[in-house]
Amino acid sequence: MPHTEPTCPDLPTPVMAIESSCDDTACAIVTTGGRILAEATLSQSGHVPFGGVVPEIAARAHLGALPALVRDTLRTAGMQPHELGAIAASCGPGLIGGLIVGADMGKGMAIALDRPFIAVNHIEAHALTARLPGVASNGAPFPYLLLLVSGGHCQCIAVEGIGHYRRLGGTIDDAAGEAFDKVAKMLGLGWPGGPAVERLAREGDPHAVPLPRPLLGRAGCDFSFSGLKTAVAQKLPTEVRAALPRQQAADIAASFQQAVSDIVIDRLGHALDMMDQRPTTLVVAGGVAANGVLRARLQEFATAHDLPFAAPPLRLCTDNAVMVAWAAIETMRARAALGLPIPDDIAMRPRPRWPLSDMAQRMTADV
Ligand code: KG4
Ligand code: ZN
After folding, report:
1. Domains and CATH numbers, the chain
2. 6 burial level (CB within 10 Å; 0-12, 13-18, 19+)
3. Which ligand 1 atom lies nearest to the CA of residue 126?
4. E strand or H helix at 36
5. For residues 280 and 131, is the Cβ–Cβ distance under 8 A?
6. Can you give the three-state secondary structure of 246-274, one letter per residue?
7. Is 111 helix (H, G, I), strand (E, B) or coil?
8. Which among 239, 235, 242, 271 has a CA at the least distance from the CA of 256?
9. Residues linked to residue 357 through DSSP beta bridges, in sequence order
10. What SUPFAM superfamilies does the record point to (predicted)?
11. Whole-angstrom Cα distance, residue 285 to residue 276?
């Protein structure tokens, strides 16, 4: 979608960002107006034999891939390092080994180039992606309701302003993507499981297998998927699993996907009631947002509540560095509007846990 690039004369541009908080190694260069000059994401394959992300393997893979990825991203943008205005990196929450690799790479560049280094909260980056020019037709003005559904996170967040996020509820056990991955494993579908479950579910009947909908109708908007996962396991006695007929497996996959969608829609209804003000937009982010059935249900929900629905393109829903650059840009811009300087986080240590509630501090003088 074409857009006019707003000029931000006092902000350093463009921003190079690094993402290395889980199992995707990513680098991007984005202007302060939100124009993507280059982006690249490498998904690590070393975890496949283990059926899940192995932190040590992830950290080593980031270390191996990042230097060349940074150089390739610069080449794609047709830029020299000295043409970068600032460097940003995901500094948490996430797997500490990978975060250290990405943050140190970014800090090294910032020191060598004498540019500011901006530490980005990975969840905040997911939360602000919808505001990247061209993503939401209305630009996703504040406040909006965000559903973040990934392999590691499942939360409803009221996005009230830059630095101002209210967690309305979240999972009390597994994340939605984690549940997809575990069900895929039970059905012998490999990892990551979400896309495989969705493919198989196309051949199945979503009403064939009765499954529970934990917390459905309960007050608040917390989620629970572990009982659902156990119920799926109980449909699959160990001795039968290997020889499960394809139709039966497809019915289980479709029924599971239906149950997850029912749970998400019910919880979202409660989240909407918990907003202080009516949201401008319903936004979804995270890898599970790639699920076609869930996306269709979310669109239906938004239409029924007369809300615009924004789902970033798939490559910006899953972990990527464009969102990291954009979060750094939004932070710089919001701080500038308050008369505050560009943050310089060169001394900040990556944080495996970094709650969104800490981000309001970023909008005060002492970063
Ligand atoms: O956001 P993401 O790329 O990484 C993080 O977890 O941060 O999300 C990955 C998760 C995995 O659990 C994967 O199985 C799930 O998103 N996923 C899906 C689909 N595509 C990816 N789940 C359901 N349906 C899909 N089509
Ligand atoms: Zn993520």
Report:
1. 15-131+317-363 (3.30.420.40), 144-311 (3.30.420.40)
2. exposed
3. 1
4. strand 36-43
5. no
6. HHHHHHHHHHHHHHHHHHHHHHHHHHHHH
7. helix
8. 235
9. none
10. Actin-like ATPase domain (SSF53067)
11. 21
| For ion ligand 2, residues whose CB falls within 5 Å | 150, 319
In the chain the first and final C-alpha atoms are separated, in Å, by 35
| Among candidate residues 66, 146, 54, the one with its CA nearest the CA of residue 105 | 66
Q: Grade residue 242 by pLDDT with cuts at 50, 70 and 90.
A: low
Helix axes 292-304, 193-201, angle to 10 degrees: 80
Please give the Cα distance from 324 to 73 (Å, whole number). Answer: 15
Tokens of 366: 């002492």
* Binding-site annotation, residues for substrate: 148-152, 181, 194, 198, 291
Q: Is residue 156 helix, strand or coil?
A: strand
pLDDT in tens, 94-148: 999 999 999 999 999 999 999 999 999 999 999 999 999 999 999 999 999 999 9
